[in-house]
UniProtKB/TrEMBL annotation:
Occurrences of domain EAL (ranges): 392-641
GGDEF domain segment(s): 251-383
PANTHER family (UniProt xref): BIOFILM ARCHITECTURE MAINTENANCE PROTEIN MBAA (PTHR44757:SF2), DIGUANYLATE CYCLASE DGCP (PTHR44757)
Listed Pfam families: EAL, GGDEF
Protein name per Swiss-Prot or TrEMBL: EAL domain-containing protein
PROSITE patterns for this protein: EAL, GGDEF
Amino acid sequence: MPKNQEHTKLYLSEGVKLLYNNALPGILITFITSSTLAFSFLNSGNLFTKLTWWGLMMVVLIIRIIDTQLWVNADPVRKGDISWIVRFSSGCLVTATLWSAYILCFYHTFSTEEFTAAIVILSAMAGGATSVLSGNLMLSSLYNIIILLPMSVLLIFQPEQYRVNLGFLGVCFTLTMIISSMKAARYIKEAILLRYRNQTLLERMEKTIKRRTQEVYEISHIDALTGLYNRVSFLSAAEEISNRYKNNREKGFSIFFIDLDGFKNINDTLGHDIGDMVLISLSARLNDFYRQGNLICRWGGDEFIYLTTETDRHLTWQLAENMVTSLSRPILLDDQTITLGATIGIAVCPEHDTSITRLIQLADIAMFSQKGKYPERVAFYNHELEESLRRKITLNEALRYALDRNEFRAVYQPIVDGNGEIVSFEALLRWHFQGRDISPAEFIPLMEQSGRIVQIGNWIMEEACRILSEMLKLKSGISMCVNISIIQFYDKEFVDNVNNLIDRYAIPPHLLHLEVTESIIHSEQHTIYHKVSQLQKRGVKFSVDDFGTGYSSLSVIHNMNIDFIKIDRSFINNIENKGRTIVQAVKDISESLDFDVIAEGVETEKQAAILKQCGVHFMQGYYFSRPLEQGAALHILAAGQQLSPAH
């Protein structure tokens, strides 16, 4: 289509839309003004003729409203047809003719007021039409001529000079409105053309973008770094294998989710360039396992997916083990030797699921469950793994709001001396969630992994200090033990928080005992030593919990000036056999290194008796008392009750 014809069609289409979109406000104004003019100046001499004129105007307006509604409901493709402009123009011009007829028919009966009102209304209607009808220059011009020119000519031939002047003024006003209509129409055309050009440009840009996107998609099936399939291409190829299974052309397939162990440390310490070289080397090793029909993909970062059409559990296990062995071999890069490990989770179709995305998710769950376990580095998915992971996610999310919902509480387990007298309490954290108590062994590791242990640790520290201040009113010299996670030591405000609580609750510092596990010995000792030393200078005591279960270093304990050692309950449970020898050895060492010994997990009278024979300084366990709620702990102290081993 020639460009001029295309523009003409565009102007027509957009002009029709502009006219009909402005139709209802114009019709409403015409109804109001015509009704006002007709009924404001009724009298017995013109009653019938004015009502007839008004009735004709109403019929025309109703027809125009119906026509407008038909246009609104019309097929969008046909809304720009020329038939609509003919219909709309006819309605407008008939309306204008009726306005002109009003002047011609009733002019000889006009009072000064009606004459003035008619002049003002028709002039306003003409002025409004200049903008409302600007979508069609011909219509706008004819409307102004019909509505203004007859009245102007009539006035020119009147005997009164002022009416003649008004007539000439009307002619000039008509010409002015026509010129204004031409300018408005030109502006509308330019606006329509500009929008059309912008729309055309946008469409071209969209087409270009789609074409370029398609080109990128076509060349993006291979991971640029490793040369393996990328995620998009893998999923596409895997769906084809899945469809073959659904059409009984494959007996099934297995998905391996492979994660490199320790790769983040390579990036952090040696840099991303070395990390990329490691990925290239390990990808080449994975490629050695490629067989016809199998797929290998770099899923992202240091994660890979391997799809094999093998479903035999023994064979797939052996294949995964061979992969782990291959990926764990040292990598020689220039003068460096780098050794990583790998963990693999396996999901099998149809045993576990048939959906590709679901199988990948299940293999990922199996891998995650096995992460960090030695020497088993391969795991098949099972339902229990997913339930465990789902529970962890649920609990982890709930921990975000547990403090705000007051779901935590502190309980206090007594620690007694050889005579059964309470000398201390250990503050223990309890979490009541959805009507059940969650085991600390389950939620504390989650808090440590997420870092929430810092906030919640501060909360229980304050609770313990607050209760200790109340306990000291009942029994002087009573102390409070609070467990501290290694993560809390890395909090910059840890020492200040402890000191502030000591000051706020007026606690003698030596009565606050902080318990740490043996993991503190293998941490950044300089940082830990410094903070421990700061608190020890204040008078705070320190104890090592679960002693004997890790890789304790007595020299480090001595250097840190630890005040108490808690012998782990596993030795107490075995105290009637070899456990007694270990307990006695720890007690003897305590005399030379000047620390006291606490036996935890004492549950029987015989255990308590043997510990007393060994000279253990303090004991703690269910045999003496379970952890007590705040009120019960205060009550025991207030009553001066003794918890005797003979109890």
